[in-house]
């Protein structure tokens, strides 16, 4: 069982805890720019994915037109057209997955982190100020 002391902590323990808290606040301040970078990179990735999905869809549309043309032809070209249709239909699934990834990136990472980041900044600054005031007050007592 832990024993509880009444009154103030001894100066050594106070200094240790104060230093530990200050290190945590400094770590938070260091990490905030990294969150900015994460948001920036995720927005760029999202833009690139949107572009890739658009061109990939366009490519599949053209391949589908080619497959339709080959299916309607006579001879062995219709077999090639059927094979190409199967390939295109399987790749449409990949297009849907890429669209899902793009929207998930925005909805589950970029937007939530971006909305909370400013709040985190304010909270870290507030905790730092409050801690400084309390440490000064404790040292004067």
Written description of the protein model:
With 141 residues, the protein is mainly α. The protein contains 2 helices and no strands. It has helices at residues 11-72, 77-140. Helix 1 (11-72) packs antiparallel against helix 2. It is rod-shaped. The mean pLDDT is 90.
Short characterization:
This protein is an all-alpha fold and 141 residues long. The protein has helices at 11-72, 77-140.
Label this structure with key terms:
141 residues; mainly alpha; 0% strand
Measure the end-to-end span.
Answer: 30 Å
* Rg for CA atoms: 30 Å
Biggest sheet overview: none
Overall mean pLDDT: 90
Query: What is the overall shape?
Result: rod-shaped
Helix/strand-derived category reads mainly alpha
Unreliable residue stretches:
none
Number of strands: 0
SS field, number of helical segments = 2
Measured by DSSP, the beta-strand proportion falls in: under 5%
Name the helix and strand elements from N-terminus to C-terminus, one letter apiece. HH
Helix content: over 70%
Topology (SSEs and partners):
Blueprint (H helix, E strand, L loop, with lengths): L10 H62 L4 H64 L1
Helix pairs in contact: 1-2
């Amino acid at each position: 069982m832990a024993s509880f002391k009444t009154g103030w902590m001894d100066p050594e323990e106070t200094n240790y805890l104060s230093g530990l808290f200050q290190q945590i606040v400094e770590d938070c301040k260091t990490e905030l720019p990294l969150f900015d970078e994460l948001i920036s990179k995720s927005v760029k990735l999202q833009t690139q994915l949107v572009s890739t999905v658009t061109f990939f869809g366009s490519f599949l549309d053209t391949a589908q037109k080619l497959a339709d043309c080959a299916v309607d032809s006579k001879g062995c070209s219709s077999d090639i057209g059927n094979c190409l249709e199967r390939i295109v239909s399987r790749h449409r699934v990949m297009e849907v997955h890429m669209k899902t990834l793009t929207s998930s990136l925005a909805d589950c990472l970029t937007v939530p982190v971006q909305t909370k980041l400013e709040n985190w900044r304010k909270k870290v600054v507030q905790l730092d100020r409050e801690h400084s005031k309390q440490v000064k007050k404790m040292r004067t007592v």
